[in-house]
Amino acid sequence: MPPLKFCANLSWLFTELPEFAQRAQAAAAAGFRAVEAAWLYDADPLDLQKAITQAGVDVVLINTPPGDVGRGDLGLGAVPGREEDFRAGLDLAVRYARALDCDRIHLMAGRVPAGQDRAAAAGEMEATFIANLRYAADVLSKEGILGLVEPINTRITDPRYFLNSPHQAAAILQKVGRSNIKLQMDIFHWQIMDGNLTQNIKTCFPLVGHIQIAQVPGRNEPDSPGELNYPYIFGVLEEMGYQGYIGCEYRPKGTTEDGLGWLQEYWRSHKLGHGSEIQD
C-alpha cells in the first residue's frame, strides 16, 4: 500500500506569516511538496506563480470566488438567480488555476438565501447547482481541470450552507453525470454531519477527488484531543489505495510547525524522509 501524500492549506496553516510567498516557503521547509488555498484573488496570479516556483511546491486546489461576502455569500453554485455571477467566478478561478498549474477547483455551492426556508428552497437550489455543475464540467474539461463539490457541516461551521452531507453530494453528482466533477471529502465535516466514517469512505470512495482533514470538534491538528482516530483513518485510505493529496485544513493550536508532530510520526512510521523526497 503506497503512503499517503499531504498538502498544506495555506489559508489555515502558517498563518503566523502574513504573505502567501512566506507561507509557501515555510510549507516547503516543513517537508510539504504541495499546497492548497481557499481564495487567492486579492493577489496577482503572476506574483503567486513566482512564489510557488521559488518555494518549489505545487498548488493542487483552489476554490471558486465566494461572491459578495458583505451580503452573505459563500459560493454561488447552488444560488438561484446568481448564475451569471457563478460563471464569471468560474472564469476567474480557471485563469488563476491555469497560472498556478492547479488541476482542481472546489466549486462552492453557497448558502440558502437569507430569509428562505431550507426545505422550501431545496428543489430550486439543487436544480441550479446541477445546471451550474454541468456548465462547469464543460468549461473545465477543456482545461484538464477537475471540479469538486464539498459538503460543509451545518451543525457547527455554517448553518445555512446548502450542500451539507456526503449522501446529498453523492446524489447530486449522480444527477450531474460528469466524470470530471467529483467529491471533496472533508473528514471534519463528514464526522459532524453523519459519522459512520469507515463505511462512508468506502461507499463514496469511487466519487472522491480530494480529501481534507482536521480533528473534531475543535478543528485542530489530527492528533489533538477529539473524536477521530486518524492513524486508523489513514490506514483505511491506504487500504483503499488513495493516490491524491490530503489537504491539512485545520487550525493549529500553536505555531504550525510545533503542531506537525503527527505528520512527522506518519513519515517515520512509513520510513519516509523529511524533505523533497518524501512525497514523490
Structural class: alpha/beta
**Fraction of residues in helix:** 25-40%
CATH class: Alpha Beta
Q: End-to-end span in angstroms? A: 15 Å
**CATH evolutionary superfamily:** Divalent-metal-dependent TIM barrel enzymes
Descriptive report:
Mean pLDDT is 96; it is low at 275-280. The radius of gyration is 18 Å and the shape is globular. It has 9 helices and 8 strands. By secondary structure, it is α/β, with parallel strands linked by helices. The chain has one domain (5-270): TIM Barrel (Alpha-Beta Barrel). Its EC number is 5.3.1.22. Catalyzes the reversible isomerization between hydroxypyruvate and 2-hydroxy-3-oxopropanoate (also termed tartronate semialdehyde).
Set out the fold topology.
Blueprint: E1 5-9, H1 20-29, E2 34-36, H2 45-55, E3 58-63, H3 83-100, E4 104-106, H4 118-141, E5 146-149, H5 166-176, E6 181-186, H6 187-193, H7 197-204, E7 208-213, H8 230-240, E8 245-248, H9 261-269
Parallel strand pairs: 1-2, 1-8, 2-3, 3-4, 4-5, 5-6, 6-7, 7-8
Helix pairs in contact: 1-2, 2-3, 3-4, 4-5, 7-8
